[in-house]
Please model this.
Amino acid sequence: MRAALQLSEAGLKTAVLSKVFPTRSHTVAAQGGVSASLGNSEEDHWHWHMYDTVKGSDWLGDQDAIEFMCREAPKVVTELEHFGMPFDRNADGTIYQRPFGGHMSNFGEKPVRRACAAADRTGHAMLHALYQRNVRANTHFFVEWMALDLIRDADGNVQGVIAMEMETSEIVVFQAKATLFATGGAGRIYASSTNAFINTGDGLGMAARAGIPLEDMEFWQFHPTGVAGAGVLITEGVRGEGGILRNSAGERFMERYAPNAKDLASRDVVSRAMVTEINEGRGCGPNKDHVLLDITHLDPEVIMSKLPGIREISIKFAGVDPIKAPIPVVPTCHYQMGGIPTNYHGEVVVGGKPVTGFYAAGECACASVHGANRLGTNSLLDLLVFGKSSANSMIDFIKQQPLELPELATSDVERSVARVERLNKQTNGVAVNDARTAMQRTMQAHCGVFRFKDMLAQGVEKILEVEKMVQQTEISDKSSVFNMARIEALELENLIEVAKATMISANARTESRGAHVRDDAPDTAETPNGRDDANWLKHTLWSRDGNRLEYKPVNMQPLTVDTIALKTRSY
Amino acid sequence: MTTETVKFRIYRYDPDKDAKPYMQDISVELDSTDRKLLDALTKLKVKDDTITFRRSCREGVCGSDAMNINGKNGLACLTDFRDLKQPIELRPLPGLPVVRDLIVDMTQFFKQYHSIKPYVINDTPPPERERLQSPEDREELNGLYECILCACCSTSCPSFWWNPDKFVGPAGLLAAYRFIADTRDTAINERLDNLEDPYRLFRCHTIMNCVDVCPKGLNPTKAIGKIKDLMVKRAV
Model:
């Protein structure tokens, strides 16, 4: 949406294809904030933001991209305000900022207020503001169209996508001089996820089928506070406003795991602490299977003004009014750190070279700014910064192109049509729900918060079995009108690519780093917390063809400042 | 795990094969972890994959799964099915053309939303930093900006049913006031002119169905009242 705005305002003819009406995309569910070192409440600096992001990434993030993002942050957040974003305000009229996990001042010293917020509805306010600005800019939206496949010509250059209009099932070629994927994450590969139904990794599936490798797919963020049982997200902003995690003894257990940052340590650290508490029998509830997020000590006025959406979610999905009683929470799959490999210009990069005409931004892309673990609020920032930078790259590229579009080969289209045809003709097949459930259970059991050598190896075998089920899915709905059964089957073909990439990449990485933590990675002086920089300070690249794995180095060289040197990570 | 059988009556229409719509009686086994109507619909779809509805976030912020539930508009993902009388009768949102089953064509609804120019208008060059706004001025936007465009309100409004092409409807008017009330917006007069017409604003007869059904607890009638006040003030 940010990219579309940049393109439309530059006077380019811009088509946005979306499976849902644009304000229904999952950005709408982001709650806590968008980070920028505005320093509205206390001193802050982009360099400190950069340090926090590199540390949060467990040094797997590329430092050129991270510097770019953190330096651009104040500019793009200010622009968003100018676009009409209804940020909360400080008494002096500036944008309200709250503390968040892993946001520290002065290179990790103490928490700082960096998360710019609109109550606990920041994503909703942002998505609507960007849509509204796009309405003003006359962006052309193709609403309820599902992209099926990427079109690459004989030279590998990207020429657009093949897409299906959901209302009519008509398949159409969208030829374009430049194509951007902003297709979001694929959290639905897991059984328990904060993600929406639509988060099925369509961009990743299309890229993988078109021969583009996927980067760092073993790294998935489990958000500490999903509502137990329901999976619905409770923002870290709750802890930013003073919320505390407690175990069955009522103990504030994060003091033991992160003496400095406590409840505001990085998400991977908090999630592991919670699972450890539960595994050691200090979980809450009759099944001792969750912990409690306590805000009963906060002023009800603060809850009503700063966390109204959370109160609503808690009442609706946990049956608890957080003013009176703590919220039952459990770590829940939330965010995909990996994705389509790009540079900080938003260009998709394969084999060290940009793929002509192809760009990606947001959760589906891997720039890589999040590395092995994303900091809260850096996802909304990622959208703004890389949405804009990729659009600027597209504008420059399009200016150099001839006016006429090249002729397309029919074989490009046939691949998509064949997939739909296979599905329509399948008999004695597998129900979509059965295949999807098998995939989600396998991912949850074999590739969760803590990972085990044997389970991962079995997981690889199992997920390849599930893939065979996905190749034989059958639907009984054959209608051409808004056939959601068909859409779900096509989505599953994308999800399974992501699931394979995740399991195979995770099985191969025999260290612990950020969100990827294995039982067989020893904690030694050379490999603190199991992190093995000598062998594993590198990005994974998984290719669909033969499930091939390759690696590329992490870019440790920022654009203008010194490298943030490797260090043991503690909060 | 304890299970229970829940009965439904669902509006079905597939223009590909049905000459006209009909109501389908169907039941589904639900277990104790299922709470919401959307959980039930998801299981119904496993049983019969032709049952068609929109859904996405399943937490009441995307606005996809609005439908008519036992005669009242609401979001399936926020409605507890155990609170509903059975058979639970599900119909598409009233007053808009049905595409298929519980899916309606929302073109007219969004056309009205777009007609109020739903974006901040301010032609003065923006400052280096954010435009300042006091917490009190920002407070004015609460209860307005949270709209999720689910259309529960507009499709429960008789005035919108009769004149969907002329009456902006509660959702669009709530959005109109959201921009009028924003101190950063400089186009109040233009916005009021845009609503100065026998239909666009004044077809609201304060029936207040919109307030009754809004899943986010917003109050379009109040916002409409404020626009009418501004019209009157401007006239005198």
